[in-house]
Specification:
Blueprint (H helix, E strand, L loop, with lengths): L2 E3 L2 E2 L6 H10 L3 H4 L5 E2 L10 E2 L2 H8 L10 H7 L4 E6 L2 H6 L10 E3 L4 E2 L3 H9 L10 H19 L3 E6 L3 H7 L4 H23 L8 E4 L5 E6 L2 H11 L1 H5 L1 E6 L2 E6 L6 H10 L4 E6 L10 E2 L13 E5 L1 E5 L5 E6 L7 E2 L5 H4 L3 E4 L7 E3 L3 E2 L3 H8 L27 E11 L2 E12 L2 E11 L1
Parallel strand pairs: 1-20, 2-21, 5-6, 5-8, 10-17, 13-14
Antiparallel strand pairs: 1-19, 3-4, 6-7, 9-19, 10-18, 11-12, 12-15, 13-15, 16-17, 22-23, 23-24
Helix pairs in contact: 7-9
Length: about 450
Amino acid sequence: KGVTFQYNHNVYPTVTRTNVASLVTGRNPGAHGLIGNTLVMRDFDPSRLIHALYDQLSRVALKTNVLLVPTLADILHKNGMEYIALGVGTSGNAYLHNPNIEIGGGATIHPEFCLPYNLHGYIEKEYGPWPKGGFTDIKKIYHGVDIMIDYVLNQRNPEVALIWFSEPDHTQHLVGVGAKESINVLSKVDEQLGKLLQWIERNERDGDTDVIVLSDHGYSTISKVITVEDIARELTRTMPRLSRDLIMAPNGGSILFYINDRHDNSVDKLAGWLMKQPWCGSIIVSDSAGQLDGTLPASLIGLEGPRTPELIMSFKWDSLANDEGIPGRVYSTGLSVGQGQHGSMSLHETNNVLIANGPSFKKSLKLSSPSGNIDVAPTVLEILGINHDFNMDGRVLFEALESHQCDIQWLNESYFANRDMQGLHYSQEIKMSRVHATCYLDQGQGFHN
């Protein structure tokens, strides 16, 4: 009924918490500082690998900002409006929607905690305890939808509400993309979305409610596992001094490399070693490392910032089909061959879902113009009539809005880098789309010959 964005993009790395941060800030990862699901925040602890979950992020918040820029919740609060997020997923995902809630406003609801803290007891008293986790998360999703309808939409009625379903992500990680169980749980999630839409229509809210449906990333199937322990052992053998100063943060289809004591061209040496590996895809380096043969700069894809690691490598990927006939395979830092994964620059992961319907949006329209998760926050602010000049990297999706008639022009760009190493030639290509100043990563891949 509404607008389908056929060419939507997430941000890289293509992992959940990085994309949550971009969703709620309209900024690329270099700006908001949440570079991965696992990462190092040197302004918190330069020697510690952080798993971006609630317990660790809340400790970070005691010393420094979890996100380096304002969130949608912060902006709404300053304008007398409210943002409430209900997350059925990881605790870190839920926390990132509004990490400044204690000095701002709104609410965050999650099976493990709520913000403000005293809300957790109220939710459990009124709606009962959250169901225990099982093979799928669908029972938690059922419970979450009931809370969203009765408490969030009916009682609180905030200007912006979000519900985050952890399926089919949870099941696809376990049994793979396109598996019978994954399709089954997806159908149940669709039913719950239908339940929400029916409530909105039945309560005559559809005349003033816009609904945006999006995913945080696409998906691949694991073709082979290369663990950081495997890499660490080989680096210890070949470059012992570098390995002592190195912290590796695994993020599914990518690895973040932090070098705490740079010496003897250590970034260049690490890049050269990686380029010799058959599983190495694209390599980007922080701008501070300078121009290194075979690498491309982090600023190219919005990753340059105060918390940028010295080097980020995306694993190699291909478009071959898995056992269910779903294209897209990738090397991974964890899980097992045949399971689902994401995190890389694969085009099967960078392309994701964005659909919008409601009074603010055009009807029955399929758009081929590039869009991205970074565009959601500025578009929401435009719909609410809030000045959105907050130095966001995303843009207002004017071409989808009923109140605007405009043609969007965009460019497709490719960037190349090459390196020759003792008879081995490594090259990489990163493809981008650009609408004015807003850039989207289409894909990145490395090649050996």
